[in-house]
Design a protein that fits this description.
Layout (H helix, E strand, L loop, with lengths): L18 E2 L1 E4 L2 E2 H12 L4 H5 L4 E9 L5 E8 L3 H12 L4 E4 L10 E2 L2 E11 L5 E2 L8 H8 L3 E10 L2
């Protein structure tokens, strides 16, 4: 099964004359609250369970001027089914709020921010061993180096594999 992740021509573009404003999620710190949201809403897809798909999905996205997620990119597609679940969950996130600067000309558009997040899909077997190797090039430390404060962190989706 192949799932395509493509953006249409009319998707939002970030222009050089746009101010990147701070954002909140569900009224609180964007990183903390969005990780909570992802932890609650992500599901381990049945097909991925059947095929024993595991791995880390790293995604990036942008919060547009309407406080909606757009330009969702899967940076490390460990598995198309898992990537689709991460994309679905990010795309359905509501509750973003843009903290607009008041000392800026109204002629300059203000948009939200760019974010990245890692999602680890893991299976735990009868022997207690968790299967989900994380590649060194996409470890939390490396992602923090690459994205700085735009890296939200990682969440884990784990199921018990009988």
């Amino acid at each position: 099964m192949t799932i395509n992740f493509s953006l249409e021509k009319d998707d939002y573009l970030i222009h050089a004359n746009t101010i990147m404003a701070e954002t909140k999620f569900n009224g609180g710190d964007a990183a903390v609250e969005f990780r909570k949201y992802m932890q609650q809403k992500l599901r381990y897809p049945k097909l991925a369970q059947q095929t024993k798909s595991v791995g880390r999905i790293v995604a990036s996205f942008f919060i547009d001027e309407n406080a909606l997620p757009c330009n969702i990119n899967i940076i490390t597609p460990a598995d198309d089914i898992l990537a689709a679940e991460v994309t679905r969950t990010i795309a359905n996130s509501r509750g973003w709020e843009i903290i607009r600067y008041t000392d800026v000309s109204q002629d300059i558009p203000q948009s939200g921010r760019f974010y990245s997040i890692a999602v680890d899909f893991c299976m735990q077997g009868d022997n207690g061993i968790v299967s989900a190797p994380i590649r060194k090039d996409i470890s939390d430390e490396r992602l923090q180096e690459m994205y700085g404060k735009d890296y939200i962190g990682a969440v884990v989706v784990m199921i018990y594999d009988k």
